[in-house]
Amino acid sequence: MATTSPAITTNDLRKSFPARKGPVEAVRGVSVDVSSGEIFGLLGPNGAGKTTTLRMLTTLLPIDAGSARVAGFDVVQDPHKVRERIGYVSQLGGADELATGRENLVLQGRLYGATLADIRPRVDEVAATLDLSEFADRRVKTYSGGQRRRLDVALGIVHQPTVLFLDEPTTGLDPQNRANLWDHLRALRDRGTTVVLTTHYLEEADVLCDRIVIVDHGRVVAKGTPRELKRRVAGDAVVITVKDGTMAGEHSRSVLGRQPYVREITAEGDQLRLYVEDGSAALPQLLRLLDQEQIAIRSMSLSEPTLDDVFLRQTGRSLRDGGPGDDPGDGPDNVTGDSTKGAKEAVA
Amino acid sequence: MKTARDTTLLFHRYTVQMLRNPVWLFVGFSTPLLYLVLFTPLLKHFSSAQAPTSSVIDLFLPGILALLAFASGMAGGFSTIFELQSGVIERFRVTPSSRLAILMGPLLSGMLMMFVFDAVVVAAAAGFGFTVNWLGLAALVVLLGILMVTMSAFSVATALVTQDISSFAAIVNGLNLPLLLLAGVLLPISLGPTWMQVLAHFNPLYYAVEGARSLSAGAFSNPAVWQAFAVLVPLCIVVVTWATRIFRQAVA
């Protein structure tokens, strides 16, 4: 498991890009510490600066200000030494479509300095690890999405890096392939590789990552283990969807906000999100209250706090983007709360 | 040493990729041959008692070879854009491989292909009556190589600056036509009016074409030969330096 020597330390990392209306600050002072042998996630919405951060750490983008050490070397002063020790799987992957999986892996290994004799057995090994052996000699353009992604990961680890960076590794994968890739990444971590990934999927950050930072507008808004972060949002979340035309926002918000057991309340369209100490006790009280006040509701659901609640609390916005695995379980008709989601979180 | 090794690896990769693209190969071989087959008959009108068809081909073929060097160099940026967009270049950049190799691998591979096409065209032209001067052709290889590297570096740098296929294509196509017409690639510019001849002297490709004609005829003492090298060598150095700088910035 995780040892104490840091695989990555960054200090006040900054990057801005020129744009017509003046420079856009993509990363505004990101400081993170990643320990060796952990799966570390950067969670945030699109445009939060996750990819830019990753590109600076992988020597692909010059750093404007601040510093970063990766795998023991300074990214600015020793980019070559950093490159020798890291692997990077970009969103695009970048495998040669006209070449076979094996040819891609052999070339990649040789660009890292391996001889042909050394790289051949290693390629067999990596292909076996990522379940690619069967079609290693087929051209990449014939691969399915999941096979393609596993090849991208194989390309990132063929030279046995100490730190592997992955940018949105499971975007576009179906749930089965996603879970499969997670297993591969866990296996890599268990063999000592530090895995750093960006994601905008809550479940991925929650279930896969040992520690995460939540990034928004180029800043770190929260860091810790998923469990710690969720615990910080004390209590349970009750999500109430009010019926159209009942003056959803203001009236119900002020009524509910006055209740002593409601710790915090946020409104988003016709949806109200309440944080209460004890969800199951609060539900009947809330129902009675809504009835008294003649506020018609479409649904009410109860869930243990998710990372989305953490994000919501820090930024005032929701991270949900409709991607698979992100549904926090507040479907229209489940007044009783989402037990499966809660169970999943308890396991994690 | 490392640069040479990495260049060889990437050279091999690009060459294999090209050979696996049948459409590209077919077009690559057929385009120069089509010029020869569909254009040479038109030249018959220019042949006369003092200039038989064979000598018209002697003038025409070096132009085609220069055109091929120009066009294959200019096309280099298309694959750069494709590889930028598909993440291939980024994947190479994260490896510790030599940056120069990432630039030179595809370039040298394109050059090899160009010389293969050149050889096919020269062999075919010999059948039409082209007079082969071996020494001249050997020197021509050097000139064409320099031209191709210059255009290639220009094209790749333009691709890296625009990063977008439609603006890149617009720039390349916009430049191709005036440069080619003002170089006398197919017919000598001396057939045109004075203003064209004056303008042509500002076009580096003009010197390449004139130099190619003299070299292919083995006329080493013709001033067009040293003029061609005097224009192209410094130009090549300037463009490659610029391209390397762009490459470092965009692809540090």
In short:
The complex is a heterodimer of chains A (348) and B (252). By secondary structure, chain A is of the alpha/beta class. In chain A, 36% of the residues lie in helices and 26% in strands.
Question: Could you characterize what this model shows?
Answer:
The complex is a heterodimer of chains A (348) and B (252). With 348 residues, chain A is α/β, with parallel strands linked by helices. Chain A has helices spanning 50-57, 79-85, 101-111, 116-129, 145-157, 175-190, 202-208, 226-232, 248-257, 279-292, 307-315, 339-347, and strands spanning 6-17, 24-30, 33-35, 39-43, 65-70, 73-74, 86-89, 163-167, 194-199, 211-216, 219-224, 236-242, 262-268, 271-276, 297-303. A six-stranded mixed β-sheet of chain A has the order 7-8-9-4-10-11, sandwiched between helices. In chain A, strands 1, 2, 3, 5 and 6 form a five-stranded antiparallel β-sheet that branches. In chain A, strand 8 (163-167), helix 6 (175-190) and strand 9 (194-199) form a beta-alpha-beta unit. Chain B is mainly α. Chain B has one domain (2-250). Chain B has helices spanning 2-19, 22-43, 53-74, 76-85, 88-94, 99-128, 134-162, 165-181, 194-200, 204-216, 223-250. Chain A binds chain B through residues 58-62, 80, 83-84, 86-88, 90-99, 103, 107-108, 110-113, 155, and chain B through 6, 9, 13, 16-17, 20-21, 85-97, 252.
Which helices and strands, and how do they pair?
The complex is a heterodimer of chains A (348) and B (252).
Chain A: E1 6-17, E2 24-30, E3 33-35, E4 39-43, H1 50-57, E5 65-70, E6 73-74, H2 79-85, E7 86-89, H3 101-111, H4 116-129, H5 145-157, E8 163-167, H6 175-190, E9 194-199, H7 202-208, E10 211-216, E11 219-224, H8 226-232, E12 236-242, H9 248-257, E13 262-268, E14 271-276, H10 279-292, E15 297-303, H11 307-315, H12 339-347
Parallel strand pairs in A: 4-9, 4-10, 7-8, 8-9
Antiparallel strand pairs in A: 1-2, 1-3, 1-5, 5-6, 10-11, 12-14, 12-15, 13-14
Helix pairs in contact in A: 3-4
Chain B: H1 2-19, H2 22-43, H3 53-74, H4 76-85, H5 88-94, H6 99-128, H7 134-162, H8 165-181, H9 194-200, H10 204-216, H11 223-250
Helix pairs in contact in B: 1-6, 2-3, 2-6, 3-6, 3-7, 3-10, 4-7, 6-7, 7-8, 7-10, 7-11, 10-11
